[in-house]
Amino acid sequence: MRDPRRRAEVTGFSAEPVQWKPGEETVFVVTMPDLVLESRSVRLGDNVLLHRLNMRDGRRIFGPVSPLKMLRDSFAVTVREQDRSWGEVVGRAHDKLGRVPTALRLLKPGGPGLAEGAAYQAGVRESLSQFNLSDMNEPLSLTLFSRSRHSLRRPEVSKFKKLYDGLSRPNASKGRARVAISRFNSAHGRSADEDRFIDTWIALEALFSPTDKQEVRYRVALRATHFIAKWAEEREEIYRTLLSSYDLRSQVVHGSKLTIRRPKNLNLSGQETLSRTQDYLRRALLKVVQAQEPLEELALDMAIARGN
Predict the structure, then answer these.
(1) pTM (2 decimals)?
(2) Residue ranges of the alpha helices (H) in 76-215?
(3) What residue segments make up the domains of the chain, in order of their start?
């Protein structure tokens, strides 16, 4: 049997060594404390289910003396995997779990994260393993210091499912898009506004100016504006905001506090600038995930030159 302690090295799960039977189905159940489902459950592809946490799984995660109210008010995501390789099982579950909060965050501002969970094999004694994805390593950043409950409404479910599927396509899961999505998630997991702001700008630069050495400020602002603006009247506002936001980012990188800085030529506070910049990033990533082709700056520059 594969050494179960390898799991911590491969995935970042914090768990005690468990008995694991190759080839048997492994069930991963992870709580999403800030999620509220309007539907009873939401079934995604790849054996993934969003649902209200049931009593049995709740006790697997929190122990036999879990408060009933905690279990009744909680929602979770369940992933089922089967393989003879523990690394393959955990790797696929890890990817699917990560796509759930990412799709919810792209759907609309905010978004829940993953927290406590358990993995087990039904009928295999001592296969239960508890973990907390708040301890995940930074690259996938699945956790979230949430500020509010996040509701997934019935009319939003279809778009959410498409975003979840889209995150597995190469144009969203490789290269610059992968870096940008990782930083987008990292920003949601930061407690300090300054760190969230820096992560947001790293993501924007990865998308719109990954190789430029000069005039990054203007290139990112121009390309991002063209990419996300829905109508002409919006373009000037986005462009001006991103230029000023970049200036503020440069100050924050060198130690300034976001709370005491107001961008030049912009009638917004530091926090308002952060909020707008994060939403521009969310809208850009939303288009990237929905697109059939990868984002290329040359194609963007040509479209801007043609006035398209």
Answers:
(1) 0.86
(2) 86-107, 157-166, 170-173, 175-189, 193-208
(3) 6-154, 169-306
